[in-house]
Each structure stands twice: as structure tokens, then as C-alpha cells.
Amino acid sequence: MRVSLTVNGVDRVVDGVEEHESLLHLLREHLDLFGTKNACEQGECGSCSVYLDGVLVCSCLVAAGQAEGGTVTTVEGLSDDGILDPVQQAFIEAGAVQCGFCTPGFVLAAHDLLRHVPDPDDAQIREALSGNLCRCTGYQKIIDAVHRAAGR
Amino acid sequence: MDTITTVGTRGRVGEATPRIDGEPKVTGAFAYASDLHREGMLFGATLRSQVAYARIHSVDTSGAAATPGVVAVMLGSDVPGKNRFGLNFFDQPVLAEDVVRYSGEPIAILAASTPGIARQAIGRIAVELEELPGVYDMEKALAPDAPRLHEFGNVLRHVHIVHGEPDTAEADVWVDGYYETAMQDQAALGPEAGLAVPAEDGGVDLYVATQWLHVDREQIAPCLGLPEDKVRLHLAGVGGAFGSREDIHMQIHACMLALRTGRPVKFSYGREESFHGHVHRHPSRIWMRHGANRDGRLVTLDVRLMFDGGAYASSSPAVVGNAASMAAGPYEIPNVRIEGTVVYTNNPPCGAMRGFGAPQVCFAHEAQMDKLARALSLDPVELRLRNAVSTGSVLPTGQVVTGAAPVRELIERCVAIPLPEPEPDRGRDLMHYPGGAGNVTHGEGIRRGVGLAVGYKNVAFSEGFDDSATARVTLARTPDGPEAEIHTAAVEMGQGLYTFLTQVVRTELEIDRVELHAIDTLIGGAGSTSASRQSTMAGGAVQMACAAVREALYGRARARTASVPPGAELALGDGWVTCDGAPLVELGDLLDEPVSCEAVYHHRPTGNLDENGQGDIHVSFAFAAERAVVEVDEDLGLVRVLQVAAAIDVGRVLNPLGLTGQIEGATAQGLGLGLMEEVQLRDGVISNPSFTDYLIPTILDMPPVVSVAVEDPEPGAPYGLKGIGESPTIVATAAVVAALRDATGRELNRAPVTPDELVGLRGPATTSGPPPIPEVPGQKSVPFYFGMSSGQQKIM
Ligand code: FES
Ligand code: FES
Q: Ligand 2: which atom is nearest the Cα of residue A96?
């Protein structure tokens, strides 16, 4: 089937998408946007998070066809020509990145939180990021990064 | 091709230095192994056995081969070289031919034009199997009538250690205990993946996420029937490892299919396949008997421990060597007997995971220390302080601790960290109760507990291995000033190694710009990124290479300027060679030709265990102490960890941010084993191979980790450093469970602790006593005595 959508501000028409494919597959396998990660394909880890029409979703749980006509922003769309989003900058500075595999998902989840709650406390951060798994950091530096980004 | 090249410009050893790969990782540009792609590439898939032990009667691949889009299907009989690989022994088939020994064992592989077709075609391979009665219990593997899983039997290694007079030692107080730990998954977020590209010379280039490129190649080349120089490995981005990438997973399969089809072939495991595709942490059973004097001095210790190695050897022989030699914990005990066995079973193979045998024994010896403190009516902190090892102490192997061993300081600094402020029982934000947003308690039945654990881990490979590391440093002139390039085969998997290596160069050469060459096998090996060794080993090699570069620069400076008086001291500073402190010549003027030097770093040699288990087998040790504070909902068995306080023996702080990140992450993995992580098996079949059913700590499970780094430089190590990737994991499990015991008063002798155990619906793990000691030819692995060729041993 054919799926037309806007990804990171660019209109894309993708042919040859199979019925069973997810939005995650569409992004990675058809559009070569590898920043969105696949770590479980069950909605458990948040590594595949993207904005779909302004709402944060696990792209592994969204059928590619559901994105028809939609607007998608991936981690690649957060930075602008080498200018990092404050959340991305804060993740680097706070030491919130180790292997980095979870990072795109956390960056988007933190970005989404700060859109709604500009200055969250620890409990709000924990709740907002509880759908994302990280195996490397123990999460403390991710919490630090969100606080840091909130100040910007 | 997608390799990792990154350049950094600031931070010397000891300074807070941002990760050199930070930016590509936050923008999504960093290429992990699962992101590799090439024009015209095929997608690989694996058919794995769904039963644990069976004879293979036939495999019919015709349905798969006839599927449009499928380009090649391969079986064990298609392995071009020998159909065996393995880290310690080549005992594992690339593809099973006659027998499968564990559920998840690969039987067939294929390559197809899309991942969907590849998966579908796998379902069209028909395998006719005859199930065999298997061995699923580590103690039953020792029974005389147990099925023999390998030609030499089921005992993989037995380690016997006797020190002093354990048989006749007398004590005032005795405590006995039995302990179990579960199989744990490394659960690196990045799944196993790689891309094999056939080369014109008949060889293959493999881009892969691994922990040790050269040992992979040692195992891959013979299976492909190729000389090593035709198999070139390149590191792809690694999404965490924690031991899970020490063993071969998709490497040989991808290379076979690439060579067969003449096209690039990519494998990228999904989460379920990842659970089957790598080794796990060994489940353990440990029996301990401690004897002490009234004054709280340990007198004697008797340990029987068993590890389930699963179907193939992997690194189990080394794991049990570690577990046995460190089973007494970081304590001085004059009389010790330790009997440690690892067996083959039909469970999934176990091997390396962060801590490598030490977390299991730490869980046991620390529970024993608390029991003993109670029996002696002594403060558990005091008991540990009285018996802690220090420099000069003698370990059960007879090895004398020659390096830094600030164990007393660690304990004191750990318990001096302020406890979390008490919160009122009632009226808290719900998130501050066990069960959190589940709204299950409003403060009724909450019990608080505090637990302490002390432990240690060997740094680098032991028992005679010479796991050296090679590095090349090249200094060249660029328009932006002198720039150094590091070439090494050492693997970064998230812990911050590459950032540290650039800090080493900046420190040694007094320049700013440092670049990292792509990581590959075109240079000598660096050994594994494991065993808390790589900062020492690769860091040592880079430091040595820099020293050689420096000497070469001084030589050029002397040749160029007639004005250097004999005996004058040359140094580097701010891009200049200085002479007795005064600028002599600018570096750029010496770099018409780049300076390039290679160095190989070896740690001090170690020995083997003699027939009594005595020997100087470990290079050095890293110690740690952690204290956990928990709250338990007595009615529901739900747990909230309020704080973990950590005091870690670091030798020297190299990069403060990276250090605390390692401590926090390592603690999280230990906490996971204490509270929730268990690979569950039914007749050898993993019943929870997903993140839905295998739980790892989330941000809601992790408390603040308050850590102090104790700096006591390690003599002989670069900058006095000690690897710290593992020690916090080792103590965290023991500390968390100790706190749960304190809160509930229950025995809790098994990790992970379940809610049922916390509320008393399920009793402690039971035993009918330790199993008999198996008869073995000696201290080495049993296959060794049967003349089996070994993997790692050969290349080190
Ligand atoms: S990959 Fe989508 S939630 Fe894990
Ligand atoms: S940084 Fe590795 S999983 Fe989060």
C-alpha cells in the first residue's frame, strides 16, 4: 500500500508498505530514519517514541497505515541544522547518555513533558518518563537532564 | 561505511569531560549495529529449536527455499569450516546438526529480500525432532544416572580451594546458610545485530556490535574455513552489552550467508530472539558455614557452590573460578574450604554478565555476615570492619593483596552518608508509597529496613591469561593545530571508554584535538571490554603510545635545534616542546611527517591454581560498599527503595560525570536482580522472553543513588585507576535484599525476592544439603583434560 505523510517537515510518499508494518518500520526501513529505535516492539521501552500529530506515541504500536496524512516528528527533527534542542543539549551536559540507545526516546518524552509542565519536580519527571527503559544510567542523570533543560 | 569516528577537544584525565559521542547519540545520527544498511542487502533470520533437548531426524528447507524473495537457506552441513565455536572451548555448533541441547539453539539460517519474508520463510522450514530426557536442574546434572550432555560428562569445571586447617578449625559461634540466585538477563537495549559484506578477495567484512573484535574473529574464521586476514571486523555502534556480547551470536551466520549469496547480509534480532541469542548470568546455589570467635573475628569458612552453565561452556570455567576464589568476600579468614562446580544442563547457556560470578557469592557471604552479627550480638558494620581485608591481607587462594584495598574506609564512608529524611507514614504523595500510583496503601503496614553489603571483584582477566591491549597514536599537523588520532580495537559500549582515551592523549601530549580512528581488526587486539579492565588496559596502551610519540618529538626537536644542552629536560606544553621550561620549538614545526607509535600494554602476569587451589591468580581488585534503605508494604509485599548509598573504590577519578553514571547504572542492575529480574525456565524453555514479562528497573523503581568515590591509587595502574563498571552491581543485590530482611524479619535467601516471599506466602528456598563433590582430573576445565581445543586461551 501507499502511505503519504509529513515527516520532520517534509512531505513523503511511501510505496510498497506492507499491511503488517508499523510506523516504526516505515520510518526505519522505508525512510532510512534510524534515529527512532527498536528495542522491544511491544510498547514497553519507549525507544521508538515519536510525535504523531503532536502526540507522543510508541511508533512500534502504530500501524503504518494509521499515519496516513499525519505529521510525524522524530528525534532527527528536534535539532535544526546542528543546533540542538535544549533537551538534547541538557542530556549531553548532564551525562544522561551512555550507550545512547534509549536516548532518542527519552529526549522525546522529556521534550513532551516540558511542553506541558515547564518546570517539573522529580515525581512528575519520574511519572512522565516511566514508559521508557534505560539499562545503562540508572536514570538519575536523565532526571538531572530534564531539570537542566527546564531552566532554558 | 558506518563506522565510529568522533573528535573531541577538551578534558584531561580527572576533569569533567563531555562524551565525544554525545551529540550523534542525542540527535539520532549515531549508527548502532541495528541501523546498518547497504544497497542490495539481504535480511537474515534464524530457525531456533523450541525444545531443549532433542535428536534432529530431518530438516526440510524446500518450503523456505521456494518462497519468493528467499536467496539462500543454510544448515549445519553447509558450514564451510568447522561447525564449532566457543569462548573457552569450541563446544558449540554454529548450527545444530544431530542434537539440540537447549531451547533457542540455532538449526537453520536464511537470507531474504525483506525482514518480513525472512521471518515468514523461517516458518516454512520443517524440522523433525525426537525429544530426549534432559537435565534441567544443576544438582541433578551430577547424578550418576543423569543423561550425559557432552562426551566427557556434565561437569564443566570443579574448583577446589583449601587454605589453613578448615577441617579442624574451632570456633565459638557457627552460622549456616543456603542461598540461591536466579538467571539474569543483561537486557542491553540495543539488540544483537550486524552486517556482513562479502569482499572481492573472497573474504568478508563484518560490522558488528561486540565486546571483543579479535576473539570474535578467532572463532569466526575457522568456521568459515578462511584465514584470519580474510575476516575483517569493524565495530558498529554498541547499544549496551554488560557481558551479553562476549559470545558469538549472529556473526558467523551473517558471514556464511554473505559468502554464499555474494551480497551483504544483515541480522538484527528482535527482543525475543535476543533473550535466546545471548548467554545469561548463571543461576547459583550456595551453601556456606562460617565460624567466628566471640570477639567477632572470622575463623573458618566452608563453601559449596554450584553454578548452572547451561548447554555450552561459554566463559563458565572462568566464571566459576572467580566465584570460588572470591566466595569468602573481602574478609580475612585463616581457614577456608571452597568447592565450586559449574555443570552442563539443557538450560540456555550462561556466561558473562557484569560481576562475572561475584554477585552470586556476595549475595551469600553478606547474608552470612548479617546472620553472624546477630549470633554474636554485634553491630553488622563493626563485624565487617573487624574482618575487612587491607593491603597485605592473604586471600583464600593464598594470594596476598598487594594493591590498594581501602575496605574499612569504604564501609565507614558508606555508612556515614546521611540516611534519607524520614517521611510521615500518613499523608504522603501516593508516589512515595510502595506500589506508588497503584494506590494500594495510604501508609498502613509499611515497614522500613536498612541493609549493608561489601564486596569485591577482580580487575582484568585472571588465572594466567595475558589479555594485553594494543594502541596506536598518530600526531599530525592540521590547519586547526596538531591533532592526534587513536587507533585501537577496544570496544566502547556506553561506559565512556573513548572519551577517557582522548583524555589520556590530551594529558600526555598537552594538545586539545584528539580523534578516534574507526575501530577494527586492522590493528592488534585490545582484549575484551569486560572484567572492569578496559580503562586500565586500553588506557595503559594509549598512555604508552603517547610516551613513545613524545620521545620521537624530543628526538626531532633535538635534531632540529642545536641549542639543547646535554642533560636539559624536554617537555610538552601548549603545543610546544619546551626545554627546561622555556619554549623551544612549536609542535607543528616538527610534524612535516606525522609521528605514529604503537604500544602494547600487559598487566602483571598471574598464575594458576595448584591442587589445593592456591595461586596468585588475580591481577588486582576493586572493592565496594553499598547501603540500601527500603520500605515494604507488609500486606502486599510491594517494595519501595528509598535510597542506595555507595562508597566505591575507584583508584582515581578519571571523569566525574562518567564515574557517577557508571555507579548509578551498575547499582540499577544489581537492584534489578534483588527485586524483579529472573529468566524463568520451564523444562529449559524461557517463558518470559520479552520486556513485558522480564522486568528491569524503570525510573519509578530507582531511588537516588548517593555515592562517594574513594581515591586510593592502584600501584602500577595508569593514573592509579581501577575499573568500576562492575563493583556496584555486585553489592547492590546483596544490600537491597539485606534491607528487605531487616524490614520483614524474613529469611529471604533467594534473589530476586518476590512479593509472595515478603508476605510469607512462599517460604525460603530449601535444600537437602550440598551435593557430593564431583571427581575431576584437576583444577582446570574438564574438557581441557579431554584435549578439547580452547578459544580465548590461544589468543592471549
Ligand atoms: S520498541 Fe516501541 S516501545 Fe519498545
Ligand atoms: S544509555 Fe544505554 S540504554 Fe540508556
A: 1
B388-418+443-460+612-765: CATH number: 3.30.365.10
Q: What is the residue with the minimal CA distance to atom 3 of ligand 2?
A: A134
Q: Which CATH number fits domain A86-150: 1.10.150.120, 3.40.50.720, 3.30.450.20, 3.40.50.2000?
A: 1.10.150.120
Nearest ligand, CA A42: 1
Architecture of domain B33-133+186-277: Alpha-Beta Complex (3.90)
Predicted pLDDT at B579? 94
- pTM beyond 0.95: yes
Q: Does A37 touch chain B (CB under 8 A)?
A: yes
As annotated, the residues of chain B forming the CATH 3.30.365.10 domain(s) are 388-418+443-460+612-765, 472-601
Q: Where in chain B is the domain with CATH 3.90.1170.50?
A: 33-133+186-277
Chain B residues with CB inside 8 Å of A34's CB?
A: 28, 31-32, 35, 37
- The predicted pLDDT at position B789 comes to 66
- How far apart, in whole angstroms, are the C-alpha atoms of residue B208 and residue B229? 17
Give the closest of A21, A28, A98 to B494, CB-based: A98
Prior bond to B482 cis, omega within 30? no
A136 to chain B, any CB pair closer than 8 A? The answer is yes
Closest chain B C-alpha to A131 CA, distance in angstroms: 8
User: What is residue B618's DSSP assignment?
Assistant: -
In the sheet that holds B620-633, the strands lie side by side as B446-459, B620-633, B638-649, B705-710
Its CATH class, for the domain covering A3-77, is alpha beta
Ligand number nearest CA of B698 is 2
Using an 8 Å Cβ cutoff, are B449 and B777 in contact?
A: no
- pLDDT value for B444: 87
What is the domain partition of chain A in residue ranges?
A: 3-77, 86-150
ipTM given for this complex? 0.98
Closest ligand to residue B19's CA: 2
Instruction: Please state the φ and ψ torsions of residue B275, each to the nearest 5 degrees.
Output: -60, -35
Ligand 2 atom closest to residue A135's alpha carbon, by position in its atom list: 3
Does B691 contact chain A (CB < 8 Å)?
yes
In short, whether A54's Cβ falls inside 6 Å of ligand 2 is no
CB-closest option in A39, A74, A132 to B28 = A74
Expressed in percent and rounded to 5, the helix, strand and coil fractions of chain B are 25, 25, 45
Q: Which three cell numbers stand for residue A78?
A: 528536534
> For B761-789, what is the mean pLDDT?
94
Min Cα–Cα distance to chain B from A68, Å: 21
Retrieve residue B630's grid coordinates. Answer: 527500603
Question: What is the 3-state secondary structure of B490-555?
Answer: CCCCCCCHHHHHHHHHHHHHCCCEEEECCCECCCCCCCCCCCCCHHHHHHHHHHHHHHHHHHHHHH
Mutate to test the interface with A, among B2, B25, B242 (most CBs of A within 10 A): B25
CATH pick for B472-601 out of 3.30.365.10, 3.30.390.50, 3.40.190.10, 3.40.50.300: 3.30.365.10
> With bands split at pLDDT 50, 70 and 90, how would you rate the model's confidence at B7?
low
B645-698 pLDDT, tens per residue?
999 999 999 999 999 999 999 999 999 999 999 999 999 999 999 999 999 999
**Is the pLDDT assigned to residue B2 strictly greater than 80?**
no
Q: pLDDT value at position B431?
A: 85
Partners of A141 on chain B (C-beta within 8 Å) are 657, 660-661, 664
